[in-house]
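Why run this: before we spend reagent on co-expression, it is cheaper to look at a predicted model of the complex and decide which construct boundaries make sense. The entries below are exactly what would go into the expression plan.
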Amino acid sequence: MRLRSPHLLGIEPLEPDEITLILDTAETMAEVSRREIKKVPTLRGKTVINLFVEPSTRTRSSFELAEKRLSADTLNFSAQSSSFVKGETLLDTARNLEAMAPDFIVIRHREPGAPHFLARHCQAAIINAGDGTHEHPTQALLDAYTIRQRLGRFRGLKVAIVGDILHSRVARSNILLLSRMGAEVFVCGPPTLIPRGVESLGCRATCRIEEALEGAHVVMVLRIQLERMHSGFFPTLREYATLYGLDLERFRRAAPGAILMHPGPINRGVEITGELADGHASVILEQVANGVAVRMAVLYLLAGGAEREAAA
Amino acid sequence: MKRLLKGGRVVDPASGIDARRDVLIDHGRIARVAEGLADPEAELVDVTGLVVCPGFIDMHVHLREPGEEWKETIATGTRAAAAGGFTGVACMPNTNPPNDSRSVTEFILKRAREEGVVPVYPIGCVSKGRAGRELAEMGDMAAAGARAFSDDGAPVRASWLMRRALEYAQVFDVPIIDHCEDLELVDGGVVHEGQIATRLGLRGWPAVAEEILVQRDILLAEYTGGHVHLAHLSTARSVEFVREAKARGIRVTCEVTPHHLVLTHEAVREYSTNAKMNPPLRDEAAVEALRRALADGTVDAIATDHAPHHADEKCVEFALAPFGIVGLETAVSLCIDRLVHGGVIPLGRLVELMSCGPARILRLPKGTLRPGADADVTVLDLEREVEVRAERFRSRACNSPFIGWRLRGAPVMTIVAGEIVYDGRHGPEEEGSPGVG
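The model came back. Tokens follow.
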């Protein structure tokens, strides 16, 4: 079996069997990362361009490590060095990258749909590493991988996603993925940060944190950005922390053995207390570790997976 | 010079005619409308099997001249209008410089005389520089030929300015046309706020941001006694407000675009920038409500909001692309196919919406084929099968979500003041063929 699309533009087009395939493949890839020599020749001779037009540390390093462990040649363009600051359009950038004949372009961009735009104009396989407030599919996949690793299933799980849902690509991808895999997803935040029609993605929305947390098996906390305060979504970070900040006390409402997740970077004392982030329920650093394996799996499968290797 | 349009079905709601009639044109005016006309001096124009209507007027277009000639010019835009079945267009003032003074109004009219294929009715700015701070010289512009005033592209933001504009415009008996958008509420929104916006991660442009200004403008029209015309209404509540206001006798008129009558926000699903317009495409319920408002007389005009942009400007990330689509060369076919053949409105109502309505709103002595009227005539072939093809557009731009659509019904001849400015009766191959063909 292989992925149906040549690109990974989002979770939305993925079928449950494709999601399972990626997660299963990631398990094999995780094994590579546990070896002494953490490298396989799978993508030898393949070129990956990492086009990060928006600042990113975690995701970019994770992709780069995944690419290197698969022996790909990698090339990094970042927001600061790229021609975007010189006013080049995305189309011209795409054409110039295309002229270098890459096999993959991993793109992080502030505009929703930028990866879809590249997919229309490039031959390379496009991987969405986060497009504005739209999707962040590899983050959702690594979150799912972490959940499956810890809890062994999706069906019947209650997942609470707390925070700025409106501006969160992580929330969108996770709602789509987890609901598709049979989990019951609650999103929670002040109504100013809940997008209209979010239920249509496959979740329930509430502004009461107790309701979201009650009996949850997974609590996913989203980063709250300071600039949202200045745009009138809530009065102060202090008040936000009081109403929606996660601490040990609130977390007690979750089911026994519940796990705490955060896509990072965390604001200690705002959306989550340090004690909780560093506590035994937290799987935040596992998420980071799993990111490499999941991204290796995505690259491997988009390159053709086992079928290609068999043919070679 | 005489012309005799022979063998057609005349649809002229203003004089209550929908029947086989011949139309005799003499010296740029309608001379006679009757059965079995003959005139040995007249040039015979065979319109057998075709529909002969009073000239269609598109009261909302962006011709981009002066200032953005790479998008469109008065020459190309009026050529597109003629091919699209329009005998006249009213152009919005958001040019560069904006049409906020007599000199710009005169420039537009001069260019239209020199290079225009159909008449151009300039719409002047409400405010100087379209900046929304002080009234522009409406009297001077009206004297030069401006037919209405608007800050289109943007709303008249300040309520006090809208009030003053509605009061002051009464001196010249012209409407104030408003683009209803509460900018603070829209706050950078690019698509209808709802499921699709949420799914695509794009900023929402909520329906209520239009409705608030619609209701404000209606209240101010009532308060001042001025005539407000609401451009490109897109929501169910907007037309409901207009319906109620009309019942109360308030001087309010409104228009709807073909695209808001035919498409929903589903069209932006693939981040298609050619489905990005302002106001945005709405949901199915809105389309239904707009269609009902066409049928029940709430809506006064169909106008295209023809908004040409260069292909490079649209070929960018969705949020960065400019709003707007071209409409002059697809409007009539879309309306015949989807609205008339689609059973939403009868043909006579379409003629009211595209001819009589705009003429009445802009105080033009047009919109009828009564003897003595200007001989502006649109001829339709209700059965012509057409495919929308970008390479056939007369417009300089081709930013249309309808490329590739197959439609039944098309404009086939356009006559302005008795002169044939477009003749596509014999198919798309000949010179003067329509953008659809």
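The interface with chain B takes residues 12, 89-91, 109, 111-114, 116-117, 131-135, 169, 172, 195-198, 200-201 of chain A (CB under 8 Å). The longest strand of chain A covers residues 125-131. Bring this page to Monday's planning discussion.
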